[in-house]
Structures are given as structure tokens and as C-alpha cells.
From TrEMBL:
Name of one Pfam family that matches: Fer4_9
Domain of life of the source: Archaea
Start and end residues of each 4Fe-4S ferredoxin-type domain: 1-28, 29-57
UniProt-recorded name of the protein: Ferredoxin
Keywords: 4Fe-4S, Electron transport, Iron, Iron-sulfur, Metal-binding, Repeat, Transport
GO molecular function, one term: 4 iron, 4 sulfur cluster binding
Length: 57
């Protein structure tokens, strides 16, 4: 499960551009991750400000 730090995130879209399943939507001031995310970590590794973390359930 993805956790997005909304204070650090500036909604650049880098995470959405690397999602292999196209499940990340960048809205005006929110990141929406649709069902089906496999927690592959590409978005976490790509985020230029470290605003995304893969959380363990």
C-alpha cells in the first residue's frame, strides 16, 4: 500500500509516469492510487522529494 506525504509532494507526476500498470492518478492536490497496485516500488524510487513510501500492512 502506498503512502503519500501530502506536505512533501508537489504533484509533479513522476510517480504516475513510471507506474507499469497506470494506476496512479495525479489530481489537483492529491495522488490517487487505484486498486491493483502491486507495490513494485518504482514510484517510491522515482519520487524526487521522497514523498512516497510503500507501507507494510
Amino acid at each position: 500500500m502506498l503512502e503519500v506525504n501530502s506536505i512533501r509532494c508537489y504533484y509533479c507526476g513522476a510517480c504516475a509516469s513510471v507506474c507499469p500498470l497506470n494506476l496512479i492518478d495525479v489530481l489537483d492536490e492529491a495522488i490517487k492510487v487505484r486498486e491493483g497496485c502491486t507495490d513494485c516500488g518504482l514510484c517510491e524510487n522515482t519520487c524526487p522529494v521522497g514523498a512516497i513510501k510503500i507501507a507494510e500492512e
